[in-house]
Design a protein that fits this description.
single chain, 143 residues, mainly alpha, 6 helices, 0% strand, elongated
């Protein structure tokens, strides 16, 4: 069998294509969202939590020192400060981080429609693991 024959024989399933489309358009949306929130920050539309003139002093400090200087809560507490210019940038990043979860959820739905119960269960378990990891419940180490 030639390489050309193999390429014609290998086809992505509809579930794989839907996953890829969701990932592509989700990543595009997340990128645009990051551009918008960064523009709001750079042009001063939203007041930053930490003033720009203080940033050079904090560049050499740890993340903990940065959070302390800006009175920024640890973990998901940043959501309370989403109206601040420098914090709203995290919206796009958080969306991109959650995009894999969204892709796996839609994959699980597609697999259920096709009666592929084992694969659907694996996809849902992956969603569970990713949600637990993002929640901060499974904290390990001193980070």
């Amino acid at each position: 069998m030639t390489e050309r024959d193999l390429r014609q024989e290998i086809k992505a399933s509809p579930a794989q294509l839907h996953y890829a489309d969701t990932l592509f358009y989700g990543a595009l949306f997340g990128f645009v969202l990051m551009l918008i929130t960064y523009t709001l920050y750079v042009f001063g539309v939203l007041t930053p939590q930490i003033p720009l003139e203080e940033l050079p002093k904090l560049w050499t400090q740890s993340a903990a020192a940065y959070r302390a200087a800006g009175d920024i809560p640890q973990g998901w507490g940043w959501l309370a400060l989403v109206n601040k210019g420098d914090i709203c940038n995290f919206i796009g990043i958080a969306f991109l981080a959650a995009l894999t979860i969204l892709c796996f959820l839609q994959l699980a739905v597609n697999l259920a429609r096709r009666g592929q119960w084992l694969m659907m269960t694996i996809a849902l378990l992956e969603v569970l693991v990713l949600c637990l990891a993002a929640s901060g419940v499974l904290v390990a180490g001193a980070h």
